[in-house]
Amino acid sequence: MRFLTPIALRSFASAQKSLGLAAESIIIKIGENVARLSAETIVANPQVPWSSIKRMHDRFAHRYEVTDYDAVWATINVDLPRVRAAIASLLP
Fold first, then answer.
1. pTM assigned to the model
2. Which pLDDT band, with edges at 50, 70 and 90, does 36 fall under?
3. Strand, coil or helix: what is 7?
């Protein structure tokens, strides 16, 4: 996530295809890593929205619908910073 920096929605929209695919790939990788966590870790850390991360992974990895790039932008610019902060709080 260190490569993700906030970007204006207008800039994101103009480069939607390439940035959107890159963002989707990052979201998918994050979801795959969350899936490897133990149940104990997940239960012990309810402040992290684990199920939301998993649902977002599933949405992009399995293409349940046409990609909504506004949702991708919101995930990268709103949701991931919160997730990052929650996960960072777990680290020593």
1. 0.69
2. very high
3. coil
Among the listed residues 19, 7, 45, the one whose alpha carbon sits nearest the alpha carbon of residue 53:
45
pLDDT tens sequence across 68-87 = 777 777 888 888 888 888 88
- The string of DSSP codes covering 51-84 is HHHHHHHHHHHTT-S---HHHHHHIIIIIHHHHH
Structure-derived torsion over alpha carbons of residues 41, 47, 2, 24, reported in degrees to the nearest 10? 90
CA–CA–CA angle 52, 74, 71 (5° rounding): 75
DSSP state of 45: -
Q: Where along the chain do its domains lie? A: 10-88
Distance CA 50, CA 43 (A): 10
